[in-house]
Design goal:
Structural class: alpha+beta
Helix content: 40-55%
Strand content: 5-15%
Number of strands: 8
């Protein structure tokens, strides 16, 4: 693991960018979203100097501390986040090239100050948490959002400059991806686990790689997901599927067995066993 030094005036505590393999050993609440996303991004940028990026995060946090000095309510904290990230530092959603893989690559997100809802949301949440604000990523269908506060709380949209959303606006947004009959379910307002957020970040890249015919890239990204989220059975299922497509039968068998170890639902276990039995021997 590599540490980075913090300037004396910075409010950011000493932190470590973890190795991806170490992320799988941490309790979920110990994961710092931005540092974990850096660890994943760095794998695609061999030899890159991360100091300028970490310094940018320090600058954002220092500015947020000043702007949000008197922000004692979730609404005020949401406004402070929007002002600092969107108005002052220029972070916004990339609507023009939404499907570009760089929008889920944290290093490139900081270079361009543009990204997907999930990459921007994890930045908002990571910095807010360092100030002690209760902040959560919401894994809403199709479009990740941020919740500030526990009760009461506000929901903001980092992709659209941190704009606040009421329940009606949230419902309308969700229906764009799920259909007209969808209601605002309680799980859409529940905090997403840190690993779930990181899986969604990489899944954006993996699905686009597969759609473009880059099976090797999709396989690499799926392997990374199993490193930091070995207890999430579905990442093993995806990895096994890609391995089978490439004829890696032994590796696929290993992945399905790993999934079997962490899966408790009887019906799903039967599906895994059926998949294992169907793998050619040899």
């Amino acid at each position: 693991m590599r540490g980075w030094s913090v300037a004396p005036q910075s409010v950011i505590p000493d932190a470590m960018i973890p190795d991806v393999s170490d992320l799988g050993l941490l309790d979920d609440e110990e994961i710092e979203l931005d540092l974990a996303a850096f660890a994943l991004s760095e794998l695609d940028h061999d030899g890159i100097d991360l100091d300028p990026y970490l310094e940018l995060l320090r600058e954002i946090e220092l500015r947020l501390e000043r702007v949000g000095e008197d922000a004692l309510t979730p609404a005020a904290q949401g406004e402070a986040l929007a002002r600092v990230f969107a108005a002052e530092f220029g972070f916004t959603g990339d609507a023009a090239s939404y499907d570009a893989p760089l929008n889920a690559d944290l290093i490139r997100v900081l270079d361009r100050r543009q990204g997907l809802p999930v990459s921007l949301s994890l930045l908002y949440v990571a910095i807010a948490r360092r100030l002690g604000w209760p902040a959560h990523v919401l894994a809403t269908p199709g479009h990740v959002l941020v919740r500030i506060g526990d009760e009461p709380y506000v929901v903001i949209d980092p992709f659209h400059a941190g704009a606040p959303l009421d329940q009606g606006q949230m419902t309308a947004l969700i229906r764009q991806f799920t259909g007209e009959g969808t209601s605002l379910r309680p799980e859409y307002l529940a905090p997403a686990a840190n690993r779930t957020v990181l899986i969604r970040l990489l899944q954006n890249q993996a699905s686009r790689a597969e759609q473009s015919g880059d099976a090797a890239r999709a396989l690499t990204l799926s392997e990374r997901m199993t490193q930091f989220a070995p207890g999430h059975g579905e990442v093993w299922w995806q990895l096994a599927r890609l391995q089978l497509q490439r004829g890696f039968f032994g590796e696929a068998r290993h992945s399905l067995n790993a999934m079997l170890e962490v899966t408790r639902a009887p019906e799903r276990r039967q599906q895994i066993k059926a998949a294992l039995a169907a793998i050619p021997i040899g």
